[in-house]
Amino acid sequence: MSGSEAAAPVVRLAGLRKSFRGHLGIGRTVAVESVDLQIGAGQVFGLLGPNGAGKTTIMKMMLGLLRPDRGEVRLFGEPPSAPSARARLGYLPENPYFYDYLRADEFLDFYGRLQGIPKEERREIVRDTLRRVGLEGSEATALRKFSKGMIQRLGLAQAIQHDPELVILDEPMSGLDPIGRREVRDLILGLKRAGKTVFFSSHILQDAELICDRVAILDKGRLRAVGRLHEMMSETVRWFEVSFRGQLPAGDDLERLSSEGEDHLLRVADIASLTRVLDSLQRSGGQVLSIWPRKDTLEDLFLREVGYLTAGEVRR
Amino acid sequence: MSARPDRVRRRAPGIASAVLAIALNTFREAVRDRVLYLLLAFALILIGVSRLLSLLTVGSEEKIIKDVGLAAISIFGVLTAVFVGVSLVFKEIERRTVYTLLANPVRRWQFVSGKFAGLLAVLSLNVVLMFLGLAIILAIRGESTWALLPAVLLILVELGIITAFALLFSSLTNPILAAVWTFAVYVAGHLSWSLKLLKGKVPEGLSQWLCDLLYWLLPHLEHLNVKAEVVHGQPISLGSVGLAVLYGTSYALAVLVLACVAFERKDFN
């Protein structure tokens, strides 16, 4: 972590612990244990973890919806119970549900009032925000007629319409089609360009890989890894996957992953073997379709941290 | 989706502004809920039927109409306060709308107070509509309704107390228990005077201490019940009505403060 991040973190979580009463009130289940995090201004931070890892519990503690058993949360140096801290953030819950008796413009106007947006600006901001999230023309539509994807977009709209410095998004891609996911990614990158801090949780690693500056991997309530993506993942090529059409070359260092007619997919151990395969293909008149250098992915890192893969192992 | 240049001024809304916004939203939710209209329709039908009842009974027809009409306003008001009051908070928690709401610069007591104010506005509208129904029936018979106003005002105050209890209990427990407890307070509140009599009949010690405790804790809702007096044309002093209003509003505010405290301590799992 850089010095400036440590000096003025937007989010600081220190020694957070949260437990809940067990079934029938017997015993306690620890949901989050010893979580320490600092997030500097302008970062896109991804909190990754399998279902039930404690991502939402951490977010709720950040918003003051849950009180930690131990530890503290500071947003802009203040506890989340301070309205002045919450005035500077926007929040989208997982699978949001909003007041279905309201129209889209009434809904955003209501939240705008709570967010302290002056009356004379609200109408324009509501219209503008609906356009930003791709819901222009839906102002007068009742929310009960909205699809899941539209509700997700509207949730994003209420989270960003007051131009917060910190945006907290719980599984923002969930319920969206590929185009919607792409649009949310672009929106997050747009917020980053505008200097905003984005804290989001996801179990879709591809999204995190594309947009995060830093990630944390959470499993069973504990942080397993925190850092910048390029520092956490090895750049070493672990093997090559070669797809080609033609005669199969011979060799002990080659592993055939699949074959269909004359089309084959081979796993090749290193660059020397790859050169030999390519030479062989050239001689036999084969056609190379693709070569994929297989590096560590966030998924490998994630699966190792949650104990699905052993250290050094990568997903095939 | 596109980013937008920074131009919105960020500031926490004023204390009254957040309460008003939540009250308005609560009012909107209730008036767009079909259950409310069902209850209101039942009440108006009952008030209308009171005209028929008066034909079947011996005695003054106007008194029967007034008696049944005021009872309908009171009972349907209480039903609305309990069911709508309990469900409004529960729905916010169950559907997790309260998460996004409280993630804004809104204090929890503002949320509870806004819910209270919004529901009270709905109940007031309900009571006014039911009272108008009763007034129309009485006006057709050439009767004045002005004398009934103190009773209607005190019904509203009573509904304020019931609403505050509904919010308190729905902050503490599930909606079914919250509804049962609120009804229990309503019934016990109308019978609280009997605790004095009961105290004289139970052995000294814990039982008497319990009678005293309940007597001081429960609302004395009979102080807010002047229906019999206005129906029978007995004189009611302005001072006694004022005192009852003061008692009722103070009690409701005290319960509302407890509801705010309970909500303040709540964890949203």
CATH topology of the domain at 3-88 and 164-232 in chain A: Rossmann fold
Ends distance of chain A = 32 Å
Written as H for each helix and E for each strand, in order along the chain, the element string of chain B is HHHHHHHHHHH
Backbone CA Rg of chain B: 21 Å
- Strand count of chain A: 13
Tell me the fraction of residues in β-strands of chain A, as a range: 25-35%
Regions of chain B with pLDDT < 50 over 5+ consecutive residues?
A: none
According to DSSP, the number of beta strands of chain B is 0
Rg of chain A to the nearest angstrom? 24 Å
Count of DSSP H/I helices of chain B: 11
Estimate what percentage of residues of chain B fall within beta strands: under 5%
Provide the low-confidence segments of chain A as ranges: 1-6
CATH class of the domain at 3-88 and 164-232 in chain A: Alpha Beta
* CATH homology superfamily of the domain at 3-88 and 164-232 in chain A: P-loop containing nucleotide triphosphate hydrolases
Fraction of residues in helix of chain A? 25-40%
Topology:
The complex is a heterodimer of chains A (316) and B (269).
Chain A lengths: L2 H5 L3 E11 L6 E12 L4 E5 L6 H9 L6 E6 L7 H4 L2 E4 L11 H11 L4 H14 L15 H13 L5 E5 L7 H16 L3 E6 L2 H7 L2 E6 L2 E7 H4 L4 E9 L8 E7 L2 E6 L2 H14 L2 E9 L2 H8 L11
Parallel strand pairs in A: 3-7, 3-8, 5-6, 6-7
Antiparallel strand pairs in A: 1-2, 1-4, 8-9, 10-12, 10-13, 11-12
Chain B lengths: L14 H17 L2 H23 L4 H34 L2 H6 L5 H33 L8 H24 L2 H16 L3 H8 L4 H12 L9 H5 L6 H27 L5
